[in-house]
Amino acid sequence: MIEVNNLHKSFIDKKNMVKALDGLSFTAKNGEITGILGPNGAGKTTCLRTLYGLLKADEGSVLVDGINVLEDPLAVRQRLGIFPDKFGLYERLTAYEQVDYFASLHGMQGAKKKAAIVQIFKDLEMEELAHRKTVGFSQGQRMKVTLAQALVHQPKNFVLDEPTRGLDVMSTRVLRNHLAKFKEKGHCILFSSHVMQEVAALCDRVIIVSNGKLAAQGTPQELCDLAGEKLLEDAFVKLIGSDEGVAA
Ligand SMILES: Nc1ncnc2c1ncn2[C@@H]1O[C@H](COP(=O)(O)OP(=O)(O)OP(=O)(O)O)[C@@H](O)[C@H]1O
């Protein structure tokens, strides 16, 4: 479970202050897929980076399975699988070596580590990629390696920043299927997107963020009811107050 409490974060950009997060609070529960939806610049990535411990909030806290990210960042990382907004691969390594490296960073070793790597390659149906260097991999193959490195340590929580960006239909389906399986196991999934259809298709709960604040939250049906709209897309636009920066 991931709990975000009253997060504030500002940046100084060319002497101007940009308020990226302005008191954002929400909870992403176990056994559910929670989507953070918001227009460009709403604060989604800043929120996720604060959650991984990459950024320090000016105010507020993030708890992962009850552990405060500032108090015990290593314990939080053990519990988090991270699929970042920009993923780079070490192209001189094979896919196996890349995943092995991340497993080692999480403190895995020996036979246990090897078994976990073999299992994740099997789960993601990517065994044939294992011993190829990742240079020249397609976007979908790169996505699979990134998923494998995020999940090899079997975290209970999985956080993804705009995961389907740049993926074709097949790769998007692979990713969605994997998220559904992860959810069935009772894990917590939190992902950000500004693609409404993706959020509508995947999420049990939706957190709508606008200007660094919570604009609304609920199931897709609850959000429609709240906005008095039949279509989720119309509800989103109404709740955000604009359709700027939101993709259909
Ligand atoms: N390192 C930084 N320095 C200055 N401003 C920043 C920095 N990171 C984020 N911001 C600003 O904070 C605000 C929120 O940005 P953020 O990337 O969190 O939004 P987002 O919802 O993820 O947007 P997008 O959908 O476009 O990725 C924006 O105004 C952005 O320009």
From TrEMBL:
InterPro entries: AAA+_ATPase, ABC_transporter-like_ATP-bd, ABC_transporter-like_CS, ABC_transporter_ATP-binding, P-loop_NTPase. Pfam families: ABC_tran. Keywords: ATP-binding, Nodulation, Nucleotide-binding, Transport. The keyword Ribonucleoprotein does not apply. It comes from the Bacteria. Belongs to the ABC transporter superfamily. This is ATP-binding cassette domain-containing protein. It comes from Colwellia hornerae.
